[in-house]
């Protein structure tokens, strides 16, 4: 069984407050044979022996009895070495004069052997394994027979005891010392805790310092269920390292727990160590204790909307639809409570309908609307105000309402959006005729869109006259119709296009607009791979054609619904799949991350903040929220909260991505996918699956951050994949990288090592996107 080796700093480098960028550390002395086995020198048979703990010395000892033809025996060491280790020194004591040496088996199964070292009897000696600059007089075999040095990671380390004049020999291993260019020498500080549950009283107190220890005390009542265990879980990117202690009914016990800090731990991390009670294999109670590094920021703190300085993250709200606490949108009536919750998630934009006439019919904003605007400003939101467009309203009447509304709200509204999905709302298609994507049979543009464009152009000109500081956006149709809207001629005062890039039943990097659908849409609205960046590129091409490079994109709706699937919607060929709350969270995070890489996108708003219609389980429209109908948070709420804080002030610069190279991203064969979906069910549009990893480097207000996620569909079927990513010029961050699961918020150390001037990261990538912060 493999385990991460525990490290404690040697006294020569453990001065408090010292953060070493190079040095050595001692593995927890070899007091356990768990990582050791015995090799009798099989190619020269006859030796016997063992690798076991010497009861007198309490240290692992290799004991060998040689037969006539025996030449050597060995202790085989199978550790998982921390990345970046350059040298290992085995401190040993032989029971007689002998010659010893080291052999390693590398990742390609090739063997490398050092020269022999003569050791004096009963005297401390050293066997040195130099992984950086070692000499290998003997090497053979393996899948890379020309390799001159071992390929990491090592599979085995053999400490060889060569046969001398005596028929027996013993070699005691007192310690294994590691040398690396980065070792933390700063202390850690833990938090004491105490809790009682299920008849158990549990407390913990830390001994702080460079080698922190947790003293656990457990008192169990006689009624405690047999088989109860206390579990201590140290956060790890690959798999949490869990130690379990049996809790015996009616007894008290004390335990000392040493956290498995690799190379002295990461001074920039705070480890959230789970302390839980388990019964019948399930966690039934508990919490966590924090072990904070000397240089660690407060990883648990999340920014509010007012504290977020720059962000494209937003969500839709429906305060306007809840003048009273009744009806399908009743939950939205308590706008102060909901605004507080959304503010605590760090959301920067909110979007709501604003009726351009008061209840008495006069132009302007109702007092309730103005009160909500003041509250939104207090919370730090940027408000996108939708001005509804109705086909049965004359242009003059419409503009009269616009004038009144903008005059009343211009001090508190950041963006005015003219209309919302006119192909669905406002009666434009029934009144003027046409299709959802505005394509007529002869590929001309539908009358409804051309008529709506007149209203939008006139409104944009008027809004600019009244509120020149406000941003003005329009369109609000599907992508293909928006392209036609742009081609119809838009106001010179229009700042951007509103699109609703719902992925429907696809992962967030894909959309159903592009080359395979040009026959359906009649315009270029994407590319051959049906990806979001291709859609953005099609917009930019249209902006270029119009000589309007100043135009931006506002994705004012996208989302994933978590309704209960019952089959009826499939028979109706409903466009939105039913997702788990976990998949919803991961997909929303992935969509925001990809939009961070698209400078043309000015704002991205998830639809919506709260489940509507009382959260009816079988209704797709009732389950898009970040919050459930009772205002409890879904996983997606925390994903957005994590993104808003970690990517505050995010700035994408293509030159940063040029510092990245994905060196390895293996994927087991069973996990590879050829096709994603047969969109029409007839084989005409087969969407290819994306089996790749996405990696982007961003500048943020919190420093340089790397985002990594899988392009595959969300699935819990297979184990995570492991990837190796090179970051050019960041070798100085080795041992100082902290990873964050962007859905759960879990923080962990990211294995990293210098390679020349570059940094090599080893990542375990699963369903949830990850962020890596460099210090």
Automatic annotation (TrEMBL):
<dbReference type="InterPro" id="IPR051923">
    <property type="entry name" value="Glycosyl_Hydrolase_39"/>
</dbReference>
<dbReference type="InterPro" id="IPR017853">
    <property type="entry name" value="GH"/>
</dbReference>
<dbReference type="GO" id="GO:0004553">
    <property type="term" value="F:hydrolase activity, hydrolyzing O-glycosyl compounds"/>
</dbReference>
<protein>
    <recommendedName>
        <fullName>Glycoside hydrolase family 5 domain-containing protein</fullName>
    </recommendedName>
</protein>
């Amino acid at each position: 069984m493999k385990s991460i080796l525990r490290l404690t700093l040697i006294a020569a480098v453990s001065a408090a407050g010292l953060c070493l960028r190079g040095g050595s550390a001692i593995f927890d002395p070899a007091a356990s044979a768990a990582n050791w086995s015995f090799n009798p020198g099989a190619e020269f048979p006859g030796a016997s022996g063992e690798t076991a703990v010497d009861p007198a010395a309490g240290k692992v000892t290799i004991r060998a009895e040689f037969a006539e033809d025996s030449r050597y025996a060995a202790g085989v060491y199978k550790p998982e070495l921390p990345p970046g280790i350059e040298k290992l020194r085995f401190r040993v004591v032989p029971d007689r004069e002998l010659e010893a040496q080291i052999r390693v088996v590398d990742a390609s199964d090739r063997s490398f052997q050092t020269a022999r070292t003569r050791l004096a009897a009963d005297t401390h000696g050293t066997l040195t394994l130099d992984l950086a600059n070692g000499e290998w007089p003997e090497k053979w075999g393996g899948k890379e027979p020309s390799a001159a040095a071992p390929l990491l990671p090592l599979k085995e380390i053999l400490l060889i005891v060569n046969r001398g004049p005596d028929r027996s020999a013993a070699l005691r291993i007192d310690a294994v010392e590691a040398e690396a260019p980065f070792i933390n020498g700063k202390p850690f500080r833990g938090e004491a805790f105490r809790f009682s549950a299920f008849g158990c009283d549990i407390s913990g107190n830390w001994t702080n310092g460079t080698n922190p220890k947790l003293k656990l005390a457990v008192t169990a009542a006689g009624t405690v269920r047999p088989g109860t265990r206390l579990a201590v879980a140290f956060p790890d990117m690959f798999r949490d390292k869990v130690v379990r202690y049996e809790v015996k009914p009616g007894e008290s016990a004390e335990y000392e727990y040493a956290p498995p800090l690799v190379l002295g731990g990461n001074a920039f991390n705070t480890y959230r160590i789970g302390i839980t009670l388990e019964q019948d294999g399930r966690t039934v109670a508990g919490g966590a204790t924090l072990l904070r590094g000397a240089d660690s920021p407060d990883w648990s703190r999340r920014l509010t909307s007012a504290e977020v300085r720059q962000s494209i993250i937003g969500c839709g709200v429906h305060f306007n639809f809840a003048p009273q606490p009744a009806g399908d949108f009743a939950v939205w009536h308590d706008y102060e409570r909901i605004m507080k919750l959304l503010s605590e998630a760090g959301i920067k934009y909110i979007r709501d309908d604003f009726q351009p006439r008061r209840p008495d019919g006069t132009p302007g904003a109702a007092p309730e609307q103005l009160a909500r605007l003041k509250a939104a400003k207090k919370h730090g939101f940027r408000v996108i105000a939708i001005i509804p467009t109705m086909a049965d309203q004359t242009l003059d009447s419409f503009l009269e309402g616009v004038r009144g509304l903008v005059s009343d709200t211009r001090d508190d509204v950041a963006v005015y959006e003219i209309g919302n999905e006119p192909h669905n709302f406002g009666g434009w298609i029934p009144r003027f005729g046409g299709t959802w994507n505005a394509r007529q049979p002869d590929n001309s543009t539908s009358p409804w869109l051309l008529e709506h464009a007149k209203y939008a152009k006139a409104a944009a000109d008027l809004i600019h006259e009244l509120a020149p500081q406000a941003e003005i956006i329009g369109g609000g149709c599907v992508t293909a119709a928006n392209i036609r809207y742009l081609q119809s001629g838009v106001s010179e005062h229009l700042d951007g296009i509103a699109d609703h890039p719902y992925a429907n039943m696809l992962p967030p990097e894909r959309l159903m607009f592009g080359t395979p659908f040009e026959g359906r849409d009649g315009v270029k609205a994407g590319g051959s791979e049906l990806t979001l960046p291709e859609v953005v590129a099609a917009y930019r091409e249209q902006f270029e054609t119009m000589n309007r490079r100043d135009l931006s994109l506002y994705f004012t709706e996208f989302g994933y619904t978590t309704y209960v699937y019952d089959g009826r919607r499939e028979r109706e060929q409903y466009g939105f799949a039913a997702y788990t709350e976990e998949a919803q969270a991961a997909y929303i995070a992935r969509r925001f991350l990809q939009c961070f890489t698209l400078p043309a996108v000015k704002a991205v708003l998830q639809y919506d903040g709260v489940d509507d219609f009382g959260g009816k389980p079988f209704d797709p429209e009732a389950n898009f929220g970040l919050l459930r109908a009772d205002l409890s948070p879904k996983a997606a709420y925390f994903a957005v909260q994590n993104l808003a804080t970690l990517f505050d002030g995010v700035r994408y610069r293509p030159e940063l991505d040029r510092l990245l190279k994905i060196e390895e991203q293996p994927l087991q064969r069973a996990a590879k996918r050829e096709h994603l979906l047969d969109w029409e069910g007839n084989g005409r549009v087969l969407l290819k699956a994306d089996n790749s990893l996405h990696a982007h480097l961003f500048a943020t207000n919190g420093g340089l951050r790397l985002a990594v996620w899988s392009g595959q569909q969300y699935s819990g079927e297979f184990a995570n994949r492991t990837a190796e990513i090179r970051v050019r010029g960041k070798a100085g961050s080795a041992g100082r990288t902290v990873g964050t699961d962007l859905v759960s918020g879990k923080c962990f150390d990211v294995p990293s090592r210098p390679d020349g001037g570059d940094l090599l990261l080893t990542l375990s990538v699963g369903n949830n996107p990850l962020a890596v912060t460099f210090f």
